[in-house]
Design brief:
By secondary structure, the chain is mainly alpha-helical. It has a domain at 2-70. It has helices at 6-12, 18-27, 34-42, 50-60, 64-67, 77-88; strands spanning 2-4, 68-70. The protein has a two-stranded antiparallel sheet. Helix 2 packs across helix 3. The protein is elongated and about 55 Å long. This is HTH cro/C1-type domain-containing protein.
Length: 118
């Protein structure tokens, strides 16, 4: 689940009106109407253009994680599989094996006999 904190970040920067945010976005080259900004401020959008999100972060001097915060549901994939996996036909796969040696070269670039492919 996500919590949308755009309004709080605006308040921290002293931006109280959506029309002011609209002007700042327009100054960043984002042409968006005040009514659309109001919708984005009041409720977390299902989708947001990355250029708009980038401009919001620039204006508010923050990161995306400051505006949209993830709140864990506490339900990991492992717990969900144990709870409903049999019902929906999903079975947990094997646990990954630990690598025996340490190498700085990823397996994807090693040749058939372990040599590096150029």
């Amino acid at each position: 689940m996500f919590k949308w904190k755009l309004k709080e970040k605006m308040a921290e920067k002293g931006i109280w009106r959506c029309t002011d945010l609209t002007k700042l976005l327009n100054a960043h080259g984002i042409n968006i109407t005040s009514s659309m900004v109001t919708l984005i401020v009041d409720k977390m959008p299902e989708r947001i253009n990355t250029k708009v999100f980038d401009a919001l972060c620039d204006i508010l001097e923050c990161t995306p994680a400051d505006i949209m915060v993830h709140i864990s549901s506490g339900k990991s994939a492992e717990k969900l599989l144990k709870a409903v996996g049999d019902e929906i036909g999903i079975k947990p796969g094997p646990k990954p094996r630990k690598k025996s040696g340490s190498s700085d070269v990823p397996d994807s670039v090693l040749g058939p006999k372990g040599g590096v492919i150029n």
